[in-house]
Design goal:
Blueprint (H helix, E strand, L loop, with lengths): L14 H13 L4 E8 L13 H7 L4 E8 L3 E8 L5 H12 L13 E8 L4 H10 L1 E5 L3 H8 L3 H4 L9
Amino acid sequence: MPQPRGDQRKKREEVERQYVAAYVATFYPGERAMFDFRLGAVETELPVEELAEEELRIIGATRRFADAIVVRSTEVIVIEGAIRPDLGKVSILSGYMRLVPVTPELAPFRDLSVRAELVGCIYDPVLDQVCREWGIKLVTWVTAEAIAYLQRLAIAMRRPPKSGGFV
């Protein structure tokens, strides 16, 4: 079966991006927030200090990125959002927290503590327990847009996962 052409494809929904932006606006109003933020050292043959901001951005485009970074007076918060959060997000956030101190754009905030938040619409008891063990704050939060998106998914995708006897 031939693949649909660009104008025939279903338009990609940016539900999670909007969800994270709404979360930050609601819970961190007025704080410095950066979205789709690249994390990690910029690996180049040239000294990073000699690169212009545009050059740094181009060279650093292959780095991993967090959904949002919020910088407060006492801490840097790495935020990952998922309409249906899963266990994989825990390891992703753990890695992101380790990349914050080596991210050149965050150098002015290196003395601040770093913590992570995983924000999702569907509560998962196993994920909750694992987040507690890893020191990640799990937030269950819904918006009207996220609920509408969930309603478009298959019924099985709308249900909370079972504990599987873990908790």
